[in-house]
Specification:
The chain has 547 residues and is of the alpha/beta class. The chain has helices at residues 8-18, 39-54, 73-86, 100-112, 123-129, 147-159, 208-219, 234-243, 267-275, 290-296, 300-310, 321-332, and strands spanning 26-29, 58-63, 93-95, 116-119, 168-171, 186-190, 204-206, 223-227, 251-255, 338-339, 341-342, 345-350, 358-364, 374-380, 382-386, 406-409, 414-422, 428-436, 453-454, 457-458, 463-470, 492-499, 511-514, 518-522, 533-538. Bound molecules: adenosine-5'-triphosphate and magnesium ion (MG).
Length: 547
């Protein structure tokens, strides 16, 4: 990271290192395996891994798997794959569930010191006694249980003597604290649910706000970075750290989460889109998940550069999704071969071109990157152009093909249209043109100019291909939980056309810039040799400007 990417968390860490408060830093990325990672998580991943790396420290990947009802190994595997794909290597791979025994012991230690008690009241009853922002809470009758009784009850909770919800373990802090999170928060709950890691070993599970600080302390995390919604929880985080019998004292620092225009950014909502079949799985190319972006054709570098550039602050923000697309173009501009694809073809017969003959014309692979060399493209009597590049009755300023007009065929010749054929529905089926051999591309011909340049694919060698074009999945106006009403039902358009002959054997994730159409990436699931399927990652141009 350059000086350009400095931010307030980096300043805190710099001070901590300079003051000698820490010898080295350790961060962690702590996803709950209850869904696939999204672009918001990428912001946190880039922040944690690159911050630690810059200060010579390390980062753990730790699954916060304390809620077995919602968690699954499928998600664990997908999250690991996504982080690896982004190019980060965790120092350690850990699970909160690795520490269940240790957490239990910490809870017992709190009980022994009179800092926790077993509650008999139901969740609703506890809530009623909790008070409000303006009124203090009321103490529960269970609050003054003896240590011995608490220890016995907590052990019974663990051994399965109670049903779900019958008891909880609460911290004994302060029922009149102005911070409601400190009004004797629940530390453990009963849930007779098998866990993806520990099976049926446990029927009590720690609450996130108790487990998380302990996990950080056990791992020697120095800076525990999280999003702003945990700010109110920080006093509880600090309380748990202060009372725990653990040497390390991690520090929680909050930053603003990433929000993107036209995007829902919560695993719960994304899961709804999947479960209710608005999309075709978590890795649907329209999804803002890392796996969806990967399948769509985004590169790790474009995602990481985006995350670095949006910065880290405490101010809530909404980032234009076109900024992410900007970094994809930046990344692929010099890397992606440029080639031609006709997405919606109409056939052109070059009536003065000899039948049965094909010539091969040289074309640069990427004019902005000479090192990529040249390719050979065929030209013959029959070619395809885009249907929208011909009009029978063009409006003014239409510079493409129309009867008695001449255009340039990219990398080939000028052609002149003299006739066309329509079917019974009035749809154009064939165009008849002549070419001028004098106008060959690269010959320096300048006797006359044409205003339009059309791309083409030669018919005899054309490879049939499928193209998937995407629009925004969510309309602009969507807000909050009504987002399902704003799902764009026309977010996917499928086209069948042709690509150049050298593209028959493309493989998954190969990326190209198709002249005029944008950047495309080979679909990893549906593409096959001889029948390629291309996802459009982004169009070529956008009105978006960076700063
Ligand atoms: P979601 O609401 O999507 O379920 P979460 O915060 O519950 O997100 P976790 O799995 O708990 O998801 O998140 C792992 C880490 O990623 C946390 O540190 C969290 O703060 C961070 N994170 C999640 N969403 C964003 C976001 N939009 N921007 C930045 N960081 C995020
Ligand atoms: Mg969550």
């Amino acid at each position: 990271m350059s000086e350009h990417h400095t931010h307030f968390i980096k300043h805190i860490v710099t001070e901590d290192m300079e003051s000698g408060a820490y010898d080295s830093i350790t961060t962690r990325f702590p996803p709950e395996p209850n869904g696939y990672l999204h672009i918001g998580h990428a912001k946190s991943i880039v922040l944690n891994f690159e911050l630690a790396d810059e200060f010579g420290g390390t980062t753990n990947l730790r699954f916060d798997d304390t809620n077995p009802l919602k968690e699954d190994k499928e998600y664990v595997d997908a999250i690991k794959e996504d982080i690896e794909w982004l190019g980060y290597e965790p120092e350690n791979l850990r699970f909160a569930s690795n520490y269940f025994e240790e957490m239990y012991n910490q809870a017992v230690s709190l009980i022994k010191r009179g800092l926790a008690y077993v509650e008999d009241l139901s969740q609703d009853e506890v809530r009623e006694l909790r008070g409000t922002l303006t009124e203090p809470g009321k103490e529960s009758p269970a609050r003054n249980r003896s240590v011995e009784e608490n220890l016995e009850l907590f052990e019974q909770m663990r051994s399965g003597a109670f049903a779900d919800g019958e008891k909880t373990l609460r911290a004994k802090i302060d029922m009149s604290s102005p911070n409601i999170n400190l009004r004797d928060p629940v530390l453990y709950r009963i849930s007779h649910t098998d866990h993806h890691n520990t099976g049926s070993d446990w029927c009590i599970y720690p609450m996130y706000s108790f487990a998380h600080p302990l996990e950080d302390a056990i791992e020697g995390v120095t800076h525990s970075l999280c999003t702003l919604e945990f700010e109110d929880q920080r006093p509880l985080y600090d309380w748990v750290i202060a009372k725990a019998d653990l040497a390390s004292e991690p520090k929680q620092i909050e930053f603003a989460r990433l929000n993107l225009t036209n995007t829902v950014m919560s695993k719960r909502k994304l899961k709804q889109l999947v479960d209710e079949a608005f999309v075709d799985g978590w890795d649907d190319p329209r999804m803002p998940t890392i796996s969806g972006l990967r399948r769509r054709g985004f590169t790790p570098e474009s995602i990481k550069q985006f995350c670095r550039e949006i910065g880290v602050s405490k101010a809530d923000n909404l980032v234009d999704v076109r900024m992410l697309e900007h970094f994809l173009r930046e990344d692929l501009k010099l890397k992606a071969p440029r080639t031609m694809a006709v997405l919606d073809p109409v056939k052109v017969i070059i009536t003065n071109y000899p039948e049965g003959e094909t010539e091969w014309l040289p074309a640069e692979v990427n004019p902005e990157n000479e090192e990529m060399g040249t390719r050979q493209i065929p030209f013959s009597r029959e070619i395809y152009i885009e249907r929208e590049d011909f009009m029978e009755d063009p409006p003014k300023k239409y510079f493409r093909l129309f009867p008695n007009n001449e255009v340039r065929i990219k990398h080939a010749y000028f052609i002149h249209c003299h006739d066309f054929k329509k079917d019974e529905n009035g749809r154009v089926t064939e165009l008849y043109c002549t070419y001028d051999p004098e106008t060959k591309s690269g010959s320096g011909f300048d006797a006359r100019k044409v205003k339009g340049t059309l791309h083409y694919v030669e018919a005899g060698h054309a490879v049939p291909a499928e193209f998937r074009l995407y629009e925004r999945l969510i309309d602009d106006e969507a807000e909050g939980d009504n987002f399902l009403d704003f799902v764009n039902s026309e977010s996917l358009t499928v086209k069948h056309g042709f690509v150049e002959p050298n593209m028959a054997d493309v493989t998954a994730y190969d990326k190209f810039q198709f002249f005029r159409h944008g950047y495309f990436s080979v679909d990893p699931k549906d593409s096959s040799p001889g029948a390629p399927v291309f996802n459009r990652v982004v169009e070529l141009k956008s009105s978006f400007k960076l700063k």
